[in-house]
Amino acid sequence: MTYLLRVVLPDRPGTLGALASALGAEGADILSVDVVERGGGSAVDDLVVDMPSSRLPDVLITAAEAVDGVMVESVRPFAGALDTTRELELVEAITARPEEGLALLAEGVPRLFRSAWALITERTGDGTRVRRVASSAAAPETEAAELPWLPLDKATVLDPAGGHTVPEAWTALDTELAAAPLGHPERAVVVGRPGGPAFRPSELARLSHLAGIVATITG
């Protein structure tokens, strides 16, 4: 079984090595490490690890948090290793086929942000309804009747409990949601990550930057 482990750890020499040793002692094989953000003396890392199918994922949490100062933010099943070069590859693909740019973005974003799905939605010209422009294969089929948080002026974590109205299907399985304006405030790319982890400010900044580049390419 392969899992995505998000950890918060002290940003000091030796901590990541100690974490790797602790996980290795429990039979976990680290496939990749991605620094999500860093600052204030700590770092947030995403680790993709292989575990024997006979071991429970709780073992990863126990082993990681046995290392001084390490806290596990989330652990969930994961398919595929992290590959940060895909961001550049996605931009290159959209540049080559700008007429398919929004569809390519919707399909590519889940791989970049280790999420399950993405979709692009926009408010119609008269402002009375919204429509789906593009979506990834795993995106919920439910269409939004209204999205009061559009127009959107910056990348945002969507929190239904905090007043961001979304279809119930979008929040199934404790899905974390983030959105960024795409070219203009009435259009947004929405990303869904079932089971977490929550979207960090650095991830919102990446999503906003990517959306801005794609909007420029596609016009």
TrEMBL record:
<dbReference type="InterPro" id="IPR002912">
    <property type="entry name" value="ACT_dom"/>
</dbReference>
<dbReference type="InterPro" id="IPR045865">
    <property type="entry name" value="ACT-like_dom_sf"/>
</dbReference>
<feature type="domain" description="ACT">
    <location>
        <begin position="4"/>
        <end position="80"/>
    </location>
</feature>
<dbReference type="Pfam" id="PF01842">
    <property type="entry name" value="ACT"/>
</dbReference>
<protein>
    <submittedName>
        <fullName>ACT domain-containing protein</fullName>
    </submittedName>
</protein>
